[in-house]
Amino acid sequence: MxxxxxxxxxxxxxxxAYFKRKLSFSGLFAAIAVGTSIFGATGIYGFIVLFFFxxxxxxxxxxxxxxxxxxxxxxxxxxxxxxxxxxxNGGLAAASALAYALLNDAVFLVVMCASLAAATxxxxxxxxxxxxxxxxxxxxxxxxVEPGTSGAITTLxxxxxxxxxxxxxxxxxxxxxxxxxxxxxxxxxxxxxIVVAGxxxxxxxxxxxxxxxxxxQCPDCLAFTEKTVCHTQTVQVAGIxxxxxxxxxxxxxxxxxFFAVFLTLMFRFL
Length: 270
Prior knowledge:
Blueprint lengths: L1 H18 L5 H18 L1 H18 L6 H5 L10 H21 L3 H23 L7 E2 L13 E2 L1 H17 L1 H6 L8 H25 L3 E3 L6 E2 L9 E4 L6 H25 L1
Antiparallel strand pairs: 1-2, 3-4, 3-5
Helix pairs in contact: 1-2, 2-3, 2-5, 3-6, 5-6, 5-10, 6-7, 6-9, 6-10, 7-9, 9-10
Family: Belongs to the TMEM19 family.
Main location: membrane
Keywords: Membrane, Transmembrane, Transmembrane helix
């Protein structure tokens, strides 16, 4: 019965997002799969964590200071998330939720929440960073670049990433408190751990994006972009061809999960 409720609620939320043009058709089914897994495995508190991640990210995506044309010239995909984007952001969280249901070890709740904290931090940094009056600075070259460039940061975006990780960790409190399986340390430490692991995951995203994400240039307008087609077929000028934004986002959440496991085990044996 709980899984049927999970399927119903996840489908309802995903359909709303789909008709609001926040999910593509493939993203619709991916979101149902992720939502059902998390709700069914962790209950209403786990679903609330996912809900606040998705809703906060969606609402921030509706607020644009930088024009759509300025950002769309750089980024590979638009606001509608496809299945790759959904799984990159929520796939580890869903897998961790299922592992928690099977093994009754609260470490998987921490991993789930840390991965979503990293995704939240990344999304908040990207969306709120666009409000910065200063142009983003590439973390490796120290050069000013176009808004939306992977591996670039602003002060506002950095503060937003911390806020996103803290927000998601606070939303996770009821889930951590009612979780099965002994963490081996106080619950408030788990909340701090989620913040740290989530923020570190976001920084891993920034570094990998700056170092290895594929980058193209349009021969016509000379703009640097993540797209393979701008005004015409673009030319790869940097990065690894398969290291696109979806892969970088997946590295963000997975690395946050690894940080969460490492920190949890460290606290357990201290």
